[in-house]
């Protein structure tokens, strides 16, 4: 018998993000975001793709909510586009943008789907970037003003909030590696931004407590998992640095009120990079939260390699099966990550706010046979269950993503959805993974062998 059974109160859902699905980039009073700018600079995004139209969910949201309803999810994670609410980042409120999200939330509530709203999923208003973006500490104030506006407007409608999605990506991937908007390549800038993002998170947590004490709030860091090739000290420390860059760097400040010394010292001694902490910052960042969201996709085995990259580490290829985006399939890492978080931070309530796989299967005779995605979901959801059985306090799982969408620097080439989107006609087609997930949700169980 290979049945995996989840508790009756386990939360099942899916997730999306505003710039990836909404489109209507120049409608409804929306201002430009850094992704509008970045995606239109040649060479930044494959095929010169951008989010001007995306999935056109701005206009087709009722159709998308109907897909959620049929799927049977109890929650839907989406993000609000900051430049729809404040086209200039702060200043004058755009009521039309606010009204759109009220229509979306009302539609969800009408179908008994609980909204889980992310305040920041990377679409910073370009007007703020022009004034220094997240590198400028004043952006923290602008974010807090935006957050207060949203909390007040949706009090009683939205009771679960996520402040920042994947701060590692919004800081280091975007401003050190330069792969995402705004495309900078400066480690000190990225580290400053990482701190300001976490400060913005803490400020928003404090603001929500004053506005709606009944609501719950957390944030959603991303993390992979590197397993050390051997028990040698060099391998162990290299992996500790690599994992810590995504885990401890963004979680110790929240749960322990400090940055991890081993990385602070590494940055200072090897890169002359420091964190611009001001008095009181760590108290704000460590404001108590109700849950943490975890976004997990991949992992690997790694070992020390002097001079290789920022942390002197080599990722080894054991001929892993890979998804179509090239990421190793490593469900064991999901279990290791979750149990490590439990050991380090205690039984913090966890939502899996993103987990999914890129497979670019097309529609054939009205069907999308994405068996590889189903296999990926099975193995990773089983890892979540293993972690729960080991004492990790996981409350829910949200598949990434409801539908194929604009996959950032990969444009429209890479498909993560359980619903196929034809980006010429915008037609939605439910994939086989959609039907598999629907069956899982209805039973809160599945068979590892049969499905």
The helical percent reads: 40-55%
Q: What low-confidence regions span 5 or more consecutive residues with pLDDT below 50?
A: none
- CATH domain topology: TIM Barrel
Number of helices: 16
The assigned CATH architecture is Alpha-Beta Barrel
Distance between the termini: 12 Å
Count of DSSP strands: 15
CATH evolutionary superfamily: Glycosidases
Please give the CATH class: Alpha Beta
In the sheet with the most strands, the strands line up as: 2-3-4-5-6-8-11-12
* SSE class: alpha/beta
Q: Major beta sheet, specifics?
A: 8 strands, parallel, barrel
How would you portray this structure in words?
By secondary structure, the chain is an alpha/beta fold. The chain has one domain: Glycosidases (TIM Barrel, Alpha-Beta Barrel). 41% of the residues lie in helices and 16% in strands. It has helices at 18-21, 34-39, 57-71, 82-85, 95-110, 126-129, 138-153, 167-175, 187-211, 233-246, 248-255, 261-271, 281-285, 331-345, 371-389, 432-443, and strands at residues 3-5, 11-15, 75-79, 114-120, 160-165, 216-220, 225-228, 291-295, 299-304, 313-316, 350-354, 394-400, 419-421, 428-430, 445-447. The strands form four sheets. Strands 2-3-4-5-6-8-11-12 form an eight-stranded parallel beta barrel, surrounded by four helices. Strands 7-9-10 form a three-stranded mixed sheet, sandwiched between helices. Helix 14 packs parallel to helix 15 (371-389). The chain is globular and about 55 Å long. The mean pLDDT is 98.
């Amino acid at each position: 018998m290979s049945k995996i059974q989840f508790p009756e109160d386990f939360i099942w859902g899916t997730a999306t993000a505003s710039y990836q699905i909404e489109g209507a980039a120049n409608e409804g009073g929306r201002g430009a975001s850094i992704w509008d700018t970045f995606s239109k600079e040649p060479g930044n995004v494959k095929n010169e793709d951008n989010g001007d139209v995306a999935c056109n969910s701005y206009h087709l949201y009722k159709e998308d909510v109907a897909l959620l309803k049929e799927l049977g999810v109890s929650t839907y994670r989406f993000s609000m586009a900051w430049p729809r609410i404040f086209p200039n980042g702060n200043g004058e409120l755009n009521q039309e943008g606010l009204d759109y999200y009220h229509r979306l939330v009302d539609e969800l509530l009408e179908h008994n789907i609980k909204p889980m709203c992310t305040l920041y999923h990377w679409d910073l208003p370009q007007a703020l970037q022009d004034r220094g973006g997240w590198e400028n500490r004043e952006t923290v104030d602008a974010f807090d003003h935006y957050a207060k506006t949203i909390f007040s407007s949706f009090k009683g409608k939205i009771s679960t909030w996520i402040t920042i999605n994947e701060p590692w990506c919004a800081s280091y991937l975007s401003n050190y590696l330069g792969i995402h908007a705004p495309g900078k390549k400066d480690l000190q800038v990225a580290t400053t931004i990482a701190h300001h993002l976490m400060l913005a998170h803490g400020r928003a947590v404090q603001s929500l407590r004053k506005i709606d004490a009944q609501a719950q709030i957390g944030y959603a860091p991303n993390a992979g998992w590197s397993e050390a090739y051997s028990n040698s000290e060099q391998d162990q420390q290299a992996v500790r640095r690599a994992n810590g860059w995504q885990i401890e760097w963004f979680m110790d400040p929240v749960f322990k009120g400090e940055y991890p010394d081993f990385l602070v010292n590494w940055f200072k001694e090897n890169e002359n990079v420091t964190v611009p902490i001001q008095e009181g910052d760590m108290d704000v960042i460590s404001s108590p939260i109700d849950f943490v969201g975890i976004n997990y996709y991949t992992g690997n085995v790694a070992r020390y390699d002097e001079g290789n990259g920022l942390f002197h580490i080599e990722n080894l290829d054991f001929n892993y099966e890979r998804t179509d985006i090239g990421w190793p399939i490593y469900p064991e890492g999901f279990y290791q990550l979750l149990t490590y978080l439990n050991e380090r931070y205690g039984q913090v309530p966890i939502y899996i706010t993103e987990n999914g796989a890129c497979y670019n299967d097309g529609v054939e005779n009205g069907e999308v046979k994405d068996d590889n995605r189903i296999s990926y979901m099975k193995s990773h959801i089983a890892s979540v269950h293993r972690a729960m059985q080991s004492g990790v306090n996981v409350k829910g799982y949200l598949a990434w993503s409801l539908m194929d969408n604009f996959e950032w620097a990969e444009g429209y080439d890479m498909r993560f959805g359980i619903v196929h989107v034809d980006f010429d006609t915008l037609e939605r087609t439910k994939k086989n993974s959609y039907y598999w997930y629907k069956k899982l949700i209805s039973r809160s169980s599945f068979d590892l062998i049969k499905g």
